[in-house]
């Protein structure tokens, strides 16, 4: 059974790794494009047929086909599982739902920050990213010093990695948006 991993960014090198890794360079910047759930399912069903999915899920093939139809269509689609998960998230506001799904797909979830800094404060922000990376490397080096990594050390490495990803994602989002107000606030609070 082929599993489809959510990929936000398209450019992949080399071709043999195309299905595994999304790189940070993309002409299309697909993570900015919003796709309706039924459209995504239609694309997924190009790779794995509704008949195969219905057999795997023990559901009727007609139901699977309806998931890939717009709900507005006359006699069209029904609320599909993607819509239900989104509705559950909107109802609860609990990002653990999304984090759980990302973990099941072999990935992770990072919230895109809404507000970010101004160019005058880019140097401290880049220094923070470098420091977070250095901290991660220090934790890894300390853990690997005895040629084994314990569960506690693994947990510490994961925590530093998550912090690095969050700090870097915040910085990248600021760059993409050209909105550096949040970095400015952080730099002012650090003084």
Write the layout of secondary structure elements.
Blueprint lengths: L36 H11 L2 H8 L3 H7 L13 H12 L3 H9 L17 H23 L6 H27 L3 H10 L1
What features would you describe in this structure?
The structure is a single chain. The protein is mostly helical and 191 residues long. The protein has 2 domains: 15-104, no CATH class; 119-190. Helices cover 56% and strands 0% of the residues. The protein has 8 helices and no strands. The protein has helices at residues 37-47, 50-57, 61-67, 81-92, 96-104, 122-144, 151-177, 181-190. α2 packs across α3 and α6 (122-144) runs antiparallel to α7. The longest helix has 27 residues, at 151-177. Residues 1-32 have low confidence and may be disordered.
Radius of gyration: 21 Å
By DSSP (H or I, 4+ residues per run), the number of helices equals 8
N→C terminal distance:
54 Å
Average pLDDT figure = 75
Name the helicity range: 55-70%
Computed structural class: mainly alpha
Question: Biggest β-sheet: count, sense, barrel?
Answer: none
Unreliable stretches (pLDDT < 50, length at least 5) are 1-32
- The tally of strands reads 0
Shape: extended
Q: Compute the number of structural domains.
A: 2
| Portion in strands | under 5%
Q: What order do the SSEs take from the amino end to the carboxyl end, as H and E?
A: HHHHHHHH
């Amino acid at each position: 059974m082929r599993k489809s991993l959510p990929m936000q960014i398209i450019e992949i090198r080399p071709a043999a790794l195309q299905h595994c890794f999304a790189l940070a360079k993309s002409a299309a910047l697909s993570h900015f494009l919003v796709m309706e759930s039924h459209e995504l399912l239609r694309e997924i069903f190009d790779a794995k047929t509704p008949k195969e999915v219905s057999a795997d899920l023990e559901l009727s093939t007609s139901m699977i086909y309806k998931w890939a139809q717009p709900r507005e269509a006359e006699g069209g689609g029904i609320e599909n599982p993607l819509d239900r998960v989104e509705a559950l998230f909107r109802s609860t506001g609990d990002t653990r739902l999304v984090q759980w799904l990302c973990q099941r797909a072999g990935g992770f979830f990072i919230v895109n920050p809404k507000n970010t800094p101004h160019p005058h404060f880019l140097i401290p922000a880049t220094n923070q990213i470098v420091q977070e990376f250095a901290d991660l490397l220090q934790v890894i080096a300390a853990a690997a010093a005895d040629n084994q990594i314990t569960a506690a050390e693994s947990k510490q490495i994961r925590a530093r990695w998550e912090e690095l990803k969050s700090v870097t994602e915040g910085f990248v989002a600021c760059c993409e948006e050209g909105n550096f107000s949040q970095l400015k606030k952080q730099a002012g609070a650090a003084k």
